[in-house]
Specification:
38% strand, 173 residues, 13% helix, seven-stranded mixed β-sheet
């Protein structure tokens, strides 16, 4: 699945070339990612080649399904990112060569003829997700929220807490 994001650099004709790919659950499984339960992300890769310049624009748009951090039910989250890269061949870049305008630089050895964007697509999908993944207010499973709020049926509030005996320790003293 990762192999579907390999772009042959030597086979590209000058001008613009577009590659369309879909990212599904299998893509994340190939990276051993168990957090993303399902995925439907469209990936458009536009490569522009002229003389010594190769520009790569990647547009990611779709959604992924993860577990809600609060209730553990499935949660669909939108994914949208548009990273832009310039490809250069040769040795490692110097510090000032790491960015070219608004584009990051991808360095490939002179002997390498393929650009693998699989890891880049994976990384940008993951960093586009929020750190806290919860449903909007009212969207969580109400049964799970009962347990989180300490309102279990048949139990008094806080009676099952190991700190219940400390309640009122400093009141009035």
């Amino acid at each position: 699945m990762k192999d579907s994001f390999v772009i042959p650099m030597n086979g590209l004709t000058p001008g613009r070339t577009e590659f369309r790919r879909k990212v599904g659950k299998e893509f994340f499984e190939s990276f051993d990612n168990a957090e993303i339960l399902d995925s439907d992300v469209d990936v458009l890769i536009t490569v522009e080649k002229s003389n010594r310049y190769i520009g790569v624009d990647v547009d990611l748009k779709g959604h992924v399904t993860v577990s809600c951090d609060r209730c553990l039910e499935d949660l669909d989250l939108p994914v949208e990112a548009s990273p832009k890269f310039s490809v250069k061949f040769g040795a490692s870049p110097s510090e000032e060569d790491l960015m070219e305008g608004d584009r990051e630089i991808i360095m490939l050895p002179d002997s390498n003829t393929d650009l693998d964007l699989g890891q880049i697509v994976y990384d940008f999908i993951n960093i586009s997700l929020p750190l806290v993944r919860v449903h909007a207010d009212g969207g969580c499973n109400p049964e799970a929220l009962k347990y989180l709020n300490g309102r279990n049926e048949g139990k008094t509030e806080g009676s099952d807490s190991p700190f219940a005996s400390l309640k009122g320790l400093f009141d009035g003293k």
